[in-house]
Amino acid sequence: MSMGDMNHSYPNVSGVPVWSANGKADSTKHAADFLSHCENAHENVPQLVVKCNTSPCRIELESIRVSGISVGSHPDEDSICSDSGFGGSPASLLLRKLSNASSSGLSPASSFEEYEDDRGFPDEVPRGVTWKKPGSTGTLPPLSVPPKKPQPWVQVVGHAGSFHAGDYGMLLKRYTEGEQQCLQRLMEDSLRPFVPGYHGVVQRAEQDYNMMDDLLTHFNSPAIMDCKIGTRTYLEEELTKARERPQPRQDMYEKMVDVDPEAPTTEEQALQAVLKTRYMQWRETLSSTTTLGFRIEGIKKADGVCNTNFKRTKSREAVKQALQDYVDCNALIVKGYLRRLKELRLVLETSDFFRTHEVVGSSLLFVHDSTGKTGVWMIDFGKTVPLPPPLTLDHRTPWEEGNREDGYLWGLDNLIDILTDILPYQT
Ligand SMILES: O=P(O)(O)O[C@H]1[C@H](O)[C@@H](OP(=O)(O)O)[C@H](OP(=O)(O)O)[C@@H](OP(=O)(O)O)[C@H]1O
Ligand SMILES: Nc1ncnc2c1ncn2[C@@H]1O[C@H](COP(=O)(O)OP(=O)(O)O)[C@@H](O)[C@H]1O
User: Fold this and answer.
1) Region Disordered: which residues (predicted)?
2) Which residues contact 312 (CB under 8 A, 6 or more apart)?
3) pTM more than 0.80
4) Rounded to an integer, what distance in angstroms lies between the CA atom of residue 70 and that of residue 63?
5) What is the C-alpha separation between 92 and 209, in angstroms, rounded?
6) Per-residue b/e over 216-246, b at no fewer than 16 CB within 10 Å?
7) Residue 74 pLDDT > 80, yes or no?
8) Does the structure show a pLDDT above 80 at 400?
9) Beta carbon of 215 within 6 Å of any ligand 2 atom
């Protein structure tokens, strides 16, 4: 399907039926699956209404409680490395600009590889949710499936205020077109099991969001680590722009002197500002990005303790120590991560998407919990850009300006090496 064909289609929200603006179901299979769950009627249940008599299609939660979970209110900004709390459901999601009309292009629950996925579609929709068919006045019987146990969402690092934890295992991230394009393409790529399932664009309070799977949903009190992969954290095009139209940044100067007051040059000190690319390069060499091709951005342990103070974690030994601490000397966890990372590497080496994109600033999100469950996913495609054909990357060749290489696979090789190194020390 071409991008142009995707206009006026609507996202599949966890496999619930999707309806086009003309009121026809876009995915008969999902609709049939959904209807087969609609058995026992319950009274006084929240109303989840799909309204499609006008375009764009709107989904509204018309009650404020779903099985004890508050769905009406929501904190607007989730602080980094803190639980979002629940009640994060948008009271009204305006579904538009849909990603992909075909159900095949939408997310399966298959991004969870390490363990049995008991979620499936459409079990995410809580008991008692009632659907109105577009254009009809009646309501479908409510679902008989029990609601999923609410898990607070936690953001480890990244931009504050960019995310909203939604219900039904969904996460909303502030919309950028570039990231949307990547997530859409990834849903069609062999990398699909290694990225959060993507469900299209929703609007909330006039802000667009990319809606994706919350990767923490299946874990209990998870430990989470965000590792930024690659030897370069800015795009080649950012370098070009910085040369053509330099825009010194005061905020980045301040972040720099906070870590090392000696870091700015005399000129930068006079200006009290630094270029973004200069700041990014400084961060790369201060940490392990340049020398190992990845760096730890943040870790949240199962006990809730969060550490984002890894800016100077550079040597192989220091990184190893931090990883060892993260896995709490648990060999089972290390083995789970290693298995997943090796699978990912194999898939990356043959992925069409990966070969044809410069992948910069993207992270691997590691998650495990006390049951021994582990998972690793690629996240953050805000600075992943398609290459001009016929250019392709091997992601291991060292970067030289113009070759667009990002060192992603070289970084992954090193990460796998270091994790393998710590295995004998685990119990
Ligand atoms: O981690 P610190 O040292 O705070 O620096 C941040 C990260 O590099 C961000 O990357 P990421 O999003 O991968 O975490 C980057 O966002 P971009 O990805 O937009 O480049 C920020 O740029 P600004 O958003 O321009 O401030 C930059 O200030
Ligand atoms: N799909 C997801 N599921 C669970 N947590 C996520 C997901 N995507 C991002 N996060 C959390 O948000 C943080 C920042 O994500 P990221 O996409 O890198 O944001 P930014 O573009 O602002 O840097 C991650 O470190 C992780 O804690």
Assistant:
1) 103-148
2) 259, 286, 287
3) no
4) 9
5) 13
6) bbbbeebbbbbbbbbbbbbbbebbebbeeee
7) no
8) yes
9) yes
Q: Ligand 1 centroid vs 284 CA: distance in angstroms?
A: 12
Q: C-alpha angle 30/36/37, rounded to 5°?
A: 95
Q: Which atom of ligand 1 is nearest to the CA of 276?
A: 25
Helix (H, G, I), strand (E, B) or coil at 317: helix
The binding-site residues of ligand 1, defined as CB within 6 angstroms of any ligand atom, are 158-159, 233, 255, 276, 283, 361, 380, 382-383
* DSSP one-letter string for 183-240: HHHHTTSTTGGGS--EEEEEEETTEEEEEEE-TTTT-SS-EEEEEEESS--S-HHHHH
Q: What average pLDDT does the structure give for the chain?
A: 74
Which residues touch 232 (CB under 8 Å, ≥6 apart)?
284, 289, 360, 399, 406, 407
Which segments of 298-407 does DSSP mark as H helices, in order?
316-326, 331-348, 352-355
Task: Give the separation between CA 11 and CA 336, rounded to whole angstroms.
Answer: 33
The count of other CB atoms within 10 Å of the CB of residue 392 is 13
**Rounded Cα–Cα distance for residues 135 and 348 (Å):** 45
Which residue's alpha carbon is nearest to atom 17 within ligand 2? 380
In this structure, what token pair is assigned to residue 344?
């990912």
Inter-residue contact 222 to 369 (CB < 8 Å): yes
Reported confidence tier of residue 424, pLDDT bands at 50, 70, 90: confident
Pairing of strands 374-379, 363-368: antiparallel
HSE-CB for 280 with a 13 A CA cutoff: 17
Q: Out of 79, 112, 153, 157, give the residue to mutate to test ligand 2, the one with the largest number of ligand atoms within 8 Å of its CB.
A: 157
How many Å apart are CA 132 and CA 142, to the nearest integer?
10
Question: In what helix (H) or strand (E) does residue 412 lie, and over which residues does it extend?
Answer: helix 408-422
Rg (alpha carbons) of the chain, rounded to whole number: 22
Task: Supply the residue whose CA is at minimum distance from atom 26 of ligand 1.
Answer: 252
Identify whether the C-beta of residue 102 lies closer than 8 Å to the C-beta of residue 10.
Answer: no
Residues contacting residue 300 through CB under 8 Å, at least 6 positions apart: 81, 154, 156, 223, 224, 225, 306, 307
Written as six digits, the tokens of 77 are 């900004």
Spatial neighbors of 85 by CB under 8 A, at least 6 apart, are 75, 152
